[in-house]
Write a structure and sequence with these properties.
3 helices, 30 strands
C-alpha cells in the first residue's frame, strides 16, 4: 500500500511538471498571449510561496513577475518546472503524512468519511459470485462462488471451508436454530439443504425457475427463495425442509429482507420498479409500492425501528421508503451498476455497493432525510456486499478482469472475463 501511495505522489509530480512545461511552451509559441501568461505566472508564483509558508520553508527570495517582453527561454522553462515540482512534491508528501495516509504497516485508502480499508481476504478459484451473508453469532461469512459456497472465519479473516455441489449458486443463508443452511442453486432450480456442522448436503428442494436471492423469516421459521425468471417465491419450512407455499409476485424479484416485527417480507421487483410487501402469515402479496423516481431496483436493506426501506436502483439512485405509508420519502445519488445494499442500525448508515468501484454511504438524518457522507472507493466489480453487525465491518467480493474491447453502441452489455485465482474479499471498517 505504501508503494501505491508513492506512485500516486509521483504521478501528481509528473503532472505538475508537465503543466509547468506546457505553460512555458505556450508563451514561447505566441507573443500575443503574453498578458495571459503573466497572469498565470503570477498565480503560480503566489501559490508556490503559499506552499513554502505552509510547509515551513523560509521565503528567502521575493516572488517577482517577469516585466520584460520576450520569449520564455528554455533554461528558465526548465528551472521553473523543476522548482515548482520540488515544492509540490514536498507539499504532497507532507500533506499525505499529516492526513494519516502513511501509518502502521503501510498506507490505507484516504477516502474522506468514516470508513477505511482494512485488508483483503484472498479466496482464489474460478467463476463468478453474487450474494454474501453473515452469521454474526457463529462468526461466519458465506460467499457464493460459481458452484460452491466459500466460508470465511470472521475472527481470523481466512477461508475456513466450503460447501460443494451448488451449481450456479446465488446465495446462502444460515439458520442456526435448526442447524441448517439453504442455498439457491440457479442452474438447477433447486435449493440445497446443508448441515452447518458437517457442511454436507442433506437434501435438495425444488424451487421455481432461476432461484436467486433468499432470506430467512424468523417469526415463522421459513426460508424465502426468490425465483428471478419464475417471478415467484418458494417458501420452505426450515425445520422440515418442505415447501409450504409458492407465491406469485408479478415480476422479476431481486433482493429481499424480512421484517419479523411487522410480519412482512419486502422484495424489490426489478422489471416493475417497485417493492412488494408479503404477509408472512398468509403467504400472499399485500402491497405493491412504486419506487419512482428509482428504476430497476436490486439491493435492499431495512431500518426496522424507523420503518424505512432502502433500495439501490439502476439509474444511480438509492431510495428510502416508508413501510407504513408505502411512499418514497428521500433519495440520494449513487454510482453505476449498483447491486448490494446494507443498513447499520447502530450508526444509522445505509450502504449502496456499485460495480463501477464505489460504495455510497448515506446517513439517515431524519425520517425524510438521507445524506451522503462518503463515496468509498472500492474496486471494479465490487457490486455486492454484506455487513457484520457485530463489528460494523463491510465485505465486498471482486476479482481482476481481462481487458475488454469497447462494444458497439447497440450491443448488449457483456460481463468481462474474470482472471482465474484472483477472487477476493475487500474489508472495510469505521475509522477508530
Amino acid at each position: 500500500r505504501l508503494q501505491k501511495n508513492l506512485d500516486v505522489v509521483r504521478r501528481a509530480s509528473a503532472a505538475h511538471e508537465q503543466t509547468a512545461i506546457n505553460l512555458g511552451a505556450a508563451e514561447a509559441a505566441s507573443q500575443d498571449a503574453h498578458a495571459t501568461l503573466l497572469s498565470l505566472e503570477q498565480d503560480l508564483a503566489h501559490q508556490r510561496l503559499a506552499m513554502k509558508k505552509a510547509i515551513g520553508f523560509p521565503p528567502d527570495a521575493e516572488v517577482r513577475l517577469r516585466a520584460e517582453r520576450g520569449v520564455f527561454p528554455e533554461t528558465r522553462r526548465r528551472w521553473f518546472a523543476r522548482n515548482v515540482v520540488a515544492v509540490v512534491m514536498r507539499f504532497l508528501v507532507l500533506a499525505a503524512m499529516a492526513a494519516g495516509v502513511f501509518a502502521g504497516q503501510g498506507a490505507l485508502a484516504a477516502d474522506e468519511g468514516p470508513y477505511r480499508v482494512v485488508r483483503e481476504i484472498q479466496i482464489g478459484g474460478e467463476g463468478g459470485w453474487d450474494i454474501l451473508t453473515v452469521d454474526a453469532k457463529a462468526r461466519r461469512l458465506y460467499v457464493s462462488h460459481s458452484t460452491k459456497v466459500v466460508i470465511i472465519d470472521l475472527e481470523k479473516d481466512v477461508v475456513a471451508g466450503e460447501i460443494a455441489d451448488t451449481p450456479g449458486v446465488h446465495g446462502f443463508v444460515a439458520v442456526p436454530e435448526v442447524g441448517r443452511g439453504f442455498s439457491s442453486n440457479g442452474k438447477e432450480a433447486k435449493a440445497s439443504v446443508i448441515d452447518l456442522k458437517t457442511l454436507k448436503t442433506l437434501s435438495k428442494v425444488d424451487t421455481g425457475e432461476s432461484p436467486d436471492a433468499l432470506v430467512y423469516e424468523p417469526k415463522h421459521g421459513e426460508v424465502y427463495i426468490f425465483n428471478h425468471r419464475g417471478s415467484s417465491v418458494t417458501v420452505i419450512d426450515a425445520k422440515t425442509s418442505k415447501v409450504v407455499s409458492t407465491i406469485q409476485l408479478g415480476g422479476s424479484p431481486e433482493f429481499a429482507v424480512a421484517d419479523g416485527a411487522a410480519g412482512r417480507v419486502y422484495c424489490n421487483i426489478e422489471d416493475k420498479n417497485e417493492v412488494v410487501a408479503i404477509d408472512s402469515a398468509k403467504h400472499e402479496v399485500v402491497a405493491h409500492w412504486p419506487l419512482a423516481p428509482g428504476e430497476a431496483p436490486s439491493g435492499i436493506a431495512l431500518d426496522a425501528s424507523q420503518h424505512r426501506l432502502f433500495s439501490t436502483c439502476d439509474n444511480k439512485m438509492m431510495t428510502m421508503l416508508d413501510t407504513e405509508s408505502g411512499k418514497v420519502v428521500a433519495t440520494v445519488p449513487i454510482g453505476e451498476v449498483p447491486d448490494g445494499c446494507a443498513f447499520d442500525d447502530k450508526m444509522q448508515l445505509a450502504f449502496a455497493s456499485c460495480g463501477e468501484g464505489t460504495t455510497t454511504i448515506a446517513k439517515e438524518e431524519a425520517l425524510d432525510k438521507l445524506s451522503v457522507i462518503q463515496t468509498l472507493k472500492t474496486e471494479r466489480g465490487a457490486r455486492t456486499m454484506t455487513l457484520d453487525p457485530a463489528t460494523d465491518r463491510i465485505y465486498l467480493p471482486t476479482a481482476q478482469f481481462e481487458p475488454t474491447q469497447t462494444p458497439a453502441p447497440d450491443a448488449p452489455r457483456q460481463r468481462p472475463k474474470i482472471v482465474p485465482n484472483t477472487f477476493k474479499l475487500l474489508v472495510y471498517e469505521p475509522a477508530k
